[in-house]
Every structure is written in C-alpha cells, then in structure tokens.
Amino acid sequence: MEVDLSWIGKATEPFVVEIEKGAIRVFAEAIGDTDPLSFDESLARSRGYMGLVAPLTFPASFRPPRRQPWLAGLDEGRILAGEQYFRYARRVVAGDVLDCRLCLLRVEEKSGRSGTMQLLVQEMQATDRSGALVVSNGRVVVYRSAGKLGAR
Question: What is the dihedral of CA 122, 128, 132, 135, to 10 degrees?
Fold first, then answer.
C-alpha cells in the first residue's frame, strides 16, 4: 500500500492551541452539550476551574497547521475517520495555552469486504506551559485500498 511506514514513531512539529471561551461555547452548542460548566464562567470558577470547561471531545478540534507528513500524497477520497479516544490528566479550560504534537504510533493492515485497508494509529499529546500533560487524543485514520472502491 502507499503509506510511508518510515513515519512510524515520528511526530509533527509542535503547534500551539490557545483555548478561548467563545470556541468552547460554540463547540458545546454544536455537539448539543448542555453542561453549564461550558457556558457559565462564574459556575466554573466556583467549582475550582480557571475558566469555562471544554467538552470532553473538544480536543478533536485541535489541528496542526499543516497536514501530517505521513498523509502527504495519499488519495483523500480513500481516507476515513476511525475510532477516537481521549485520556485526561485534567480538563481543558478557557485560557489554556497548549503545546501539541501528533505522532504516528503504528500502521496496521486489515482485510475487509471492500479490500485491504491500513489503519494509521495516531496520538496527539497536549501539554500546558509547564510541560504537564493535559490530554492525549488517539485517532485512527482508515486508508482504503484503491482496488474495490465503490464495490458493494
């Protein structure tokens, strides 16, 4: 297949994500999350947070400024989103400035009804300015073979 396996174990250049309260509110509204900690700053502060609390899936919106190098040159029509997970050391809050890196952990080959596919297992780690881990976001990208696209 076409994924360059030499990228396994390598990461993107670091990128910074500044967490804004407006972005938290918009994201929460978009996913239908009604947790008041994402909308009421006074309540969030009274519960010990430094600002509005982001929904648990919010790190899915963190994107590097450039496409991951291991995806370069791949046919975008053959790429699908797979599973995703989040592991928290602490919640993401408004005012956080997070340093993020996305790493290609491994590539697994699978066979399915429509042919072979590669599962690109990636993980983004976001650390705060002190270097402490805040959240890890694992993502699986499915890259389907060209052979049987459109087959049923």
Answer: -40
